[in-house]
Amino acid sequence: MAEATPSSSLFSAFARAPIHFERGEGVRLFTNEGVEYLDFAAGIAVNSLGHSHPKLVKALADQGEKLWHVSNLYESPQQEKLAQRLCDNSFAERVFFTNSGTESMECAFKTARRWQFENGAPERVDIITFEGAFHGRSLAAISAGGNEKYMMGFGPQVAGFIQVPFGDHEALKAAISETTAAILIEPIQGEGGIIPVPHQCLRGLCQLCDEHGLLLIYDEIQCGIGRTGKLFAHQWVDGAEPDIMAIAKGIGGGFPVGACLATEEAASGMQPGTHGTTYGGNLLGMAIGNTVMDVVLEDGFLEQVQQRAIFLKQKLAEIADSFPDQIEGVRGDGLMQGLKCKITNLEVVGACRDKQLLTVPAGDNVVRLLPPLTVSEAEIQEAIDKIEAALTALQEAG
Ligand SMILES: *Cc1c(COP(=O)(O)O)cnc(C)c1O
User: Fold this and answer.
1) pTM above 0.85, yes or no
2) Closest protein CA for atom 10 of ligand 1
3) Residues near 159 by Cβ (< 8 Å), separated by ≥ 6?
């Protein structure tokens, strides 16, 4: 049996690096010992505007002085405002606010099943997902993600999730039956290893759902909120709008905020009493979410993300060329890039950390680079220099 570190009172569920951060500013983090790190992990795509963004700090302080929380028993102009802006800038017409990605997914599952139920097909409960997916850590979310490692020892898989191989159109068609409710996909797999879904496949999924009376659900918890240079990753693709979409991470910029977005039709089953949340839509979270939207929707902000992304990708491609024994290639969209490694990704993440650069490991032996959307070209160059130094050190250590 694995033992917790004797000095720790925490669950040993996380393998933590032996550093702790005390302060952050933009793309930089400072440890308790004053050591400066360049943060290309961004809390795993959470700190969309970097650390201590002055507008977020102000929004939190201003709201904090007025009112923190009132529950969802009363009207919420703050929720209305953020919901309206999410809808104005997407396919969506209705929004349910949550505190996390997992809860946004949970709302998406229930919304899809409920729609089928209300539309005369209560037997349609199955949600089809794809190998390599990650949708969170609740019992339903691990069942949707289908990763054996995450399900082992936690009892029976929650019923109603069917997984097919990624990119296998025949298997997908064969999996659709009279009990299928919805298809769920990340437009870019994050934890799975930064794997973008080809545009024609998203379009194909959309058509398939239409043909079979299924709902299409996107998980944009990691790839949404400007990460790819559009507000949502699927907006790069014409004719691939979902019925339901889960978001979180970037919309809160570090404050726990998530949301389930849906069309009017898809949300129509979710009447009073069907679903709820205590903290979802909390006033502090809404103040932050509205401020993140202010910044991301500013004229030129997303274009700037696109330009920075091109620069990052070019530089990463050069690294892949220079270190062919260690790096197999680069993949991803926008400021969501992955280095597919030949040596183990954890070694590369560790070597980068030794050079004071934070990155995140992902599945398929990939190192993820997810800098704040506010990253400058100079900061990208600095990260590239650190990656080069890290790979050189690994090479020399042989
Ligand atoms: C992080 C993530 C989740 C889970 O979000 P939590 O806030 O950790 O519950 C779900 N799906 C994707 C794609 C994610 O990246």
Assistant:
1) yes
2) 135
3) 125, 143
